[in-house]
């Protein structure tokens, strides 16, 4: 067999994070008696991704991301809020979201009988565990590695070293990471010297420095790569 170990990203690979995020924001705004417009949602996403970028560059810690993203958003709406408290409420809503992306669960169930499956996800441990449990998929995975617990995140080499050390009789040549993020998943896999499968449903173009081994537009197509 070409592969023995498959490492799966979660958000926008197995679970529909776009939908989860939208629902969580809607629930939060509803509690505040406010209406979430497309414009506010876009502003939130901009603020959030900027904060995560600064976190990835080591400029701020994770608490600054989760505790200030809403105070920054509401500052722009001229409303003063307790950013930390709102951040907690939001994460609670986020942890409730476990909408599957397509037929990902059936695919995982089928792969489970032939391969050793692992979860490799960047995020908050409590949130990710709850979402995976609620999706009824955890039993198909040998282990779950959430960046918060690992202490490093994808694409850092240290993150992958930590994961590989914990996979019994790990065989680098027979290991592949599957994910939608060109940086976290594909660049991470490149740096960790394993094969990579890029889930690219929106046909984004790649960059010269990051090369996936395989590319698919729907997760179902994974079977043709594994054969
Ligand atoms: Mg992802």
Automatic annotation (TrEMBL):
It holds the Pfam family HAD_2. Transmembrane segments: none annotated. InterPro entries: HAD-like_sf, HAD-SF_hydro_IA, HAD-SF_hydro_IA_YjjG/PynA, HAD_2, HAD_sf, PGP-like_dom2, Pyrimidine_5'-ntase_YjjG. Keywords: Hydrolase. GO terms for molecular function: 5'-nucleotidase activity. The keyword Hydrolase applies. The keyword Hydrolase applies. This is TIGR02254 family HAD hydrolase.
């Amino acid at each position: 067999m070409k592969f023995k170990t498959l490492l799966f990203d979660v958000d926008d690979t197995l679970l529909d994070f776009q939908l989860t995020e939208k629902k969580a924001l809607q629930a939060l705004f509803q509690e505040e008696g406010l209406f979430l417009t497309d414009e506010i949602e876009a502003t939130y996403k901009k603020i959030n991704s900027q904060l995560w970028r600064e976190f990835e560059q080591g400029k701020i810690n994770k608490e600054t991301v989760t505790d200030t993203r809403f105070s920054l958003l509401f500052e722009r709406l001229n409303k003063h809020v307790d950013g930390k408290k709102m951040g907690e409420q939001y994460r609670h809503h986020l942890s409730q979201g476990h909408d599957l992306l397509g037929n990902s669960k059936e695919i995982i169930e089928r792969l489970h009988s032939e391969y050793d499956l692992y979860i490799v996800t960047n995020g908050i441990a409590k949130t990710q565990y709850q979402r995976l449990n609620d999706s009824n998929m955890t039993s198909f995975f040998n282990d779950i590695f959430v960046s918060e617990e690992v202490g490093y995140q994808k694409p850092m080499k240290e993150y992958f070293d930590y994961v590989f050390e914990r996979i019994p009789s790990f065989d680098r040549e027979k290991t592949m990471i599957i994910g939608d993020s060109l940086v976290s998943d594909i660049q991470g896999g490149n740096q960790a010297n394993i094969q990579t499968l890029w889930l690219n449903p929106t046909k984004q173009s790649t960059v010269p420095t990051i090369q996936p081994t395989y590319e698919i537009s729907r997760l179902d197509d994974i079977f043709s790569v594994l054969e």
